[in-house]
Amino acid sequence: MTTTRLAEEEALPHRIKRRIKRMLGPWGVFVEGFLRHPVMVGSIIPSSRFTIAKMLAPVKWDECRLFVEYGPGIGTFCRPVLDRLRRDGALIVIDTNPLYIDYLRSTIRDSRFTAVLGSAADVEEIVRAHGHDHADYVLSGLPFSTLPDGIGPAIADATWRVLRPGGAFLVYQFTAKARHFMERHFQRIDDGFEFWNILPCCLFWGWKDEPAEG
Questions:
Q1: The pTM is what?
Q2: SS3 category, 10
C-alpha cells in the first residue's frame, strides 16, 4: 500500500467525524465534550427552557452587574442570561473543557460575554482578573456528586467568598447532594424541582444574606 493511500485511509475517519459534527451542529459539540470529560459535565442533554426560566426567575436583573456561570457547555444558559442582563453588565463563564470554551468564543458575539478556560475553584482570581470585585450571581450545573475529591467543597467555599452580600448561588442538579456542599455557607437555601427536563432536576438558590445591622 502506498504512503499516499495509507494517509488517505487514516484521514477518512477524521473526515467522517467532521461531517457528523457539522450535521449535528451544537448538539454534536455538546456530546463530544461529554464523552471527553464525563465527570465534569452534568448531563449529556442540555437543560430545557423550563429549567432555564425557573432557575433564572429569582434574579434581580436590574441589580446584576456580574453574572458568573460554571460549566456553560455550549451556552444553553448563556444566551438567556445575556437577553436579561443589563447593558452595562457582564457574563463570565468558566469551564475546564477547551472544546466548549472554543465553541462559545466563536459563536457568542457580545461585548458583555467572556469565556474562561479554567476551574470554578479559581473564581475569585478570575473575577478580579477581569476587573470586578465580586459577583452578584453564580450559576452552576456542575455534577458535584462526581467531581474529584475536594473540588466540590473548594468550589462552594470560593463561591461564597466571591458573592456580594445579597447575591445568590444558583445550582441545578439531578440529585439533592449539591445542597450538602451549599449548606456549609448558605443558611438560606430555596428548593425547587423541574419535571420538564431530561432528566428531571433539583433546583437550589443559596442566598448570601445581607449582614444584620448592628
A1: 0.81
A2: helix
